[in-house]
Write a structure and sequence with these properties.
It contains 12 helices and 18 strands. The chain has 443 residues and is an alpha+beta fold. The strands form 4 sheets. It has an 8-stranded mixed beta sheet with strand order 6-10-11-18-17-16-13-12, sandwiched between helices. Helix 4 packs across helix 6, helix 4 packs across helix 12 and helix 8 crosses helix 9. The longest helix is centred in the middle third of the chain and has 23 residues. It starts with 14 loop residues before the first helix and ends in a 20-residue tail after the last helix. The model has no long low-confidence stretch (mean pLDDT 94).
């Protein structure tokens, strides 16, 4: 009988271990995909793709137990050889091959030239052959940075006393209302896919004070723009005992500061690969919704057409204005009109036409919506009635307020949009692993 005692130590080494020092001139063993082969005649350069990056290996005629003709791109292999310094190689090291074990050979050639530095192909082709295109180094780096953003969100909020929660994605009623819900039958009962974890995270403020979640949300909007998806990942948090909605904005500013430092320190390779310049987060300006519209209308000679919402062009111009005037990459736009915010948004007591809420724009694109919520049961019930809504399906949610709730608020951040703007892409599908939109349900 055997007993497992923990993680097994492997003979094969990872890139980080090769670079830690002390192994130059010794025999090492590594595994990976053959990313590319450059056959120079008597010498061939075999580049391995590993989870941490590329590793150059050198195959010299007569010094290894096989020929370069036995190798092909996308084979998975184990390579044994002597580790040597070479400043011209990726990461400054290479392996002189003595032995290769072939673990698997591809059934057919890759449909895209993934070994090229940049995939010069259409977005449609990249999405149609997603399992292949993501093997490209630059494509893969996008999602390493996306991991860093999610990691920063989690780590920062843990440090601020938040509890991570996991809420249902099938429910009886949508949190945002409206017609943009995916409806389904749930064992002979009508149900919807969650537009947001809003109801649940508010309920959990009454349990843990501060909660957060990273999870998918679903919007059945019939759009096909560069900034919208029908399923995306939302970074949500909700916090109690706030003094004002500015506490929420300050917490998000802290998250951004923490995350940009994390990316700079631990994702430097990916930042270099994608040539990303991290945005400024030391201080983020805040401007009222109505004032923001006036500023861009005046500076850019633009007529205000919709006094109740920001048009995409206005978001771009607001971002441009604050970049030109204050060198700001982000800007909070506050006090959105009440008619454009959900029923649970707290109205501004000084002017109930507006709410104690905000959006965060990043280079002219909304990446966050948040604000203070109504925490008194009677006020919440009255607003539901004033909007002609029904309380049906919200018994559990409203019950939390009947039992008492602290002043609270929160936000939701679109992970794919934030990643898109960070790396300078112009289509959110570029930073979505497997996009779901009006025309795409596969892969």
């Amino acid at each position: 009988m055997e007993f497992l005692t923990g993680v097994k130590e492997k003979e094969t080494l990872e890139l980080k271990e090769l670079l830690e020092g002390g192994l130059i001139g010794t025999e090492v063993k590594v595994n990976g995909f053959i990313h590319s082969i450059r056959d120079m005649g008597e010498v061939a350069f075999v580049v391995l793709r590993k989870r941490e990056g590329l590793l150059q290996c050198v195959l010299e005629e007569g010094t290894a137990d096989l020929s370069v003709k036995d190798l092909r791109e996308s084979q998975t292999v184990v390579i044994t050889g002597i580790l040597e310094k070479d400043e011209r190689a990726p990461h400054g090291v290479e392996i002189r091959i003595s032995h290769v074990t072939i673990l698997s050979t591809p059934y057919e050639a890759l449909p895209l030239p993934i070994s090229k530095w940049k995939l010069s192909t259409s977005l449609e082709a990249k999405l149609n052959y997603r399992s292949a295109s993501l093997r490209n180094i630059r494509e893969r780096a996008k999602f390493r940075l996306q991991e860093g953003i999610t990691r920063g969100f989690r780590d920062f909020l843990y440090g601020q006393g938040f509890t991570e929660i996991h809420t249902p994605k099938i429910g009886a009623k949508g949190a945002e209302g409206g017609s943009n819900m995916f409806r389904l039958e749930y064992f002979h009962h009508p149900a919807v896919l969650a537009q947001s974890p809003q109801f649940y995270k508010q309920m959990m403020v009454g349990v843990f004070d501060r909660v957060f979640e990273t999870a998918p949300v679903f919007r059945a909007e019939k759009h096909n723009t560069k900034r919208h998806l029908n399923e995306y990942t939302s970074l949500d948090f909700e916090m109690g005992y706030i003094d004002s909605f500015e506490d929420i904005m300050a917490m998000e500013t802290g998250f951004l500061q923490y995350t940009m430092k994390l990316l700079e320190e631990q994702y430097a390779d990916e930042l270099k690969i994608l040539d990303v310049k991290l945005p400024k987060t030391d201080q983020i300006p805040a401007v009222r919704f109505d004032k923001a519209k006036e500023l861009v209308a005046e500076k850019y000679n633009r007529r205000i057409r919709n006094p109740f919402d920001l048009e995409p062009e206005e978001e771009v111009l607001i971002g441009q204005y604050f970049k030109e005037e204050y060198d700001a990459d982000f800007v909070f736009v506050t006090h959105y009109p009440s008619k454009k915010r959900p029923f649970y948004a707290m109205d501004d007591p000084e002017d109930v036409r507006y709410t104690l809420s905000f959006d965060l724009l990043f280079h002219g694109l909304e990446i966050t919506t948040g604000g203070q919520r109504i925490h008194e049961y009677e006020m919440l019930s009255e607003k539901i009635k004033a909007r002609g809504m029904t309380e049906e399906g919200m018994d559990q949610y409203l019950g939390a307020f009947k039992y008492g709730m602290p002043p609270h608020g929160g936000l939701g951040i679109g992970l794919e949009r934030l990643t898109m703007k960070l790396i300078g892409e112009d289509n959110v599908r570029e930073t979505t692993l497997f996009p779901r939109d009006l025309s795409r349900l596969e892969p």
